[in-house]
Design goal:
- Helices cover 26% and strands 40% of the residues.
- It contains four helices and eleven strands.
- The strands form three sheets. The protein has a five-stranded antiparallel β-sheet with strand order 1-2-9-4-7, sandwiched between helices. The protein has a four-stranded antiparallel β-sheet with strand order 3-8-5-6, with no helix packed on it.
- α1 (4-17) runs antiparallel to α2 (22-32).
- The mean pLDDT is 94.
- The structure holds fe (ii) ion.
- Fe (ii) ion (FE2) binds at residues 75, 77, 127.
Length: 186
Amino acid sequence: MFDLEQFAADCRAALKADSSHKSAREVVARAVSDPAGVLKALGEPKRAEVQKLYHAPDLTILNLIWAPKMTVMPHDHRMWAVIGIYTGREDNVFWRRLPDDHRRVEAAGARSLCVGDAELLGHNIIHSVTNPIPRLTGAIHVYGGDFFAAERSEWDPETWQEGRYDAQRALRMFEEANESNRHPAS
Ligand SMILES: [Fe+2]
């Protein structure tokens, strides 16, 4: 069964062992290969939220619960990341900066993740995330740095203009998603 302390220790060991972060991806892949074990350890998702499981200057582990049909705008991390899905689905769109206007982005690719998938995102990746299904999605996100302290960017979903990432606003989005799921527009 998934054991958070062991998982964090394995991530730390992977961090030391392999600068390509493939080992970290393997640690996450191993965890989500037993989705029932992760669900048992972390609990069945009840509401959209960002749960901090482990937080250090060089490693952050989050339990990300996406609301049904929730989308977050394109953003970067400026550190490597691994996403592992243990329930539901996550659609990732990858973006790149326009060659003639570096503050704007265009779609460059996509990857649909389902239960058991573990995806490694490089340091410079810009992505947006959608939960395409009408129920909560649960994912373990591992970041090679302090996810909450890093300075980074997000892109306006209507204009694709770059702005400063606002962590508080991002967290509010999860609460708003919970609110609109309690009172769905008819
Ligand atoms: Fe992200």
